[in-house]
Amino acid sequence: MNPILQEVTLGNFLQTNSVVHKIDPRLKLGSVFVYTILICMFRGIYALLLTFVALLAVYKGAKIPLKALWKNLKVIVPIITIAAMVNIFLIPGSVVFEIWFLKVTKEGLIFTLMMFFRASCLVSGTALLTFTTSPGSLVDALEYFARPVRMFGGSPNEIAMAISIAIRFVPTLFTELGKIIAAQKSRVAPFDSPKLRERLRAYLPVIVPLFHITSKRAEDLACAMESRCYAGNNKRTKFRILRFGTLDFVALVLMLVCAVGTFWVDRWRLYS
Known about the structure:
A two-stranded antiparallel sheet has the order 1-2. It is mainly alpha-helical. It has one domain. The radius of gyration is 22 Å and the shape is flat. It has helices spanning 3-6, 19-22, 25-41, 45-61, 66-90, 106-132, 135-145, 156-186, 196-227, 246-271, and strands spanning 95-99, 102-105. Helix 4 (45-61) runs parallel beside helix 6 (106-132).
């Protein structure tokens, strides 16, 4: 399998007996949503760095190996590198040093670091949610937040189920893509050719079987759900009722403290 494809773990659920796994899924989903907004609002590198350190601490508490986090971050490294090369030279400001006619500015370096930590926090937070939340619990949390669609005649359960299936299909699709590429390589497909044009042409035969496999898996899933008499209506009952406990309230307080603290650090460093 392609080494890059093997590194994708986003969408996988890692079962460990940790405190983070026991937190109400609604709180975890809401926390990810709040922190996503905050990360996009931060205008200083110190708040982003503090947020990333806090995420590492949560990973440690969830007993999720940092290797799993690094696998997700490695996927975005090429994108960040390309964007960094552009921003470092194009953002005006105080010149640090020059490379021929290209000028590297202090503002460009700071913006690049902010972009790296912002992307790392977004990927890490999303991965942490899927690592510590089972598919069933994630559906319950999504359905809880999608309840307002009932006013427009929609079904929260159907929306939650569709989003959950889409997230869980990410590692499956990458696994199938890796198998297709391995099969094409056995037929001497030029994936490792030094010429970019030949490499791009080699990926064209991968698209058709990938779409076919995706459609087949979607059809199998639909048949399995129909055979179990699944109906995504608003009258469905639940075997497990979500209720906030002491652990959830403690986690909520810690989340609010971290959110207010990082927001204060961002504004303090910005205006000090």
